[in-house]
Amino acid sequence: MAIDLDINTRLDEAQFLTNFDYSIDEWGAMTASQFGGYYDIWALRDKVVNYDCWYRATNIIIRLITLNRGVDTYISVHQKSIPLDHPLIPVDSAFGGTAIYQIKYINGCSYSGYQSHQICEHVPFNLCVTRNKGQIFINPKFQVD
Prior knowledge:
By secondary structure, the protein is α+β, with helices and mostly antiparallel strands.
């Protein structure tokens, strides 16, 4: 289990246990959602957000567009509330402040937040999990605050 203790003030046992409403044969990792809008866009990668949003948002400044416009274009647009009754959301990477991983899928994986530029440390780790055939989900019922 990985958790950001500096931001998570509430981790509810019942919500944590919802991860086990699903057969452990169906998932390699379950990541948290939030009570408000989903905030952890930097760690998120899926078919829609298949890029480093903060890298794009800050580099758009170079093109003489404001940071606010970059944040609106590449970050805020994805920070939606996820209803509790929404099904699991398959992703290539996510974190949401808390995640649980099955040991068999983290073999050879390590946290590293630097490639050609500073990146979210969860992304290379989670991509390793998916290469190891572990499916990663955002669990809307697993909410942290």
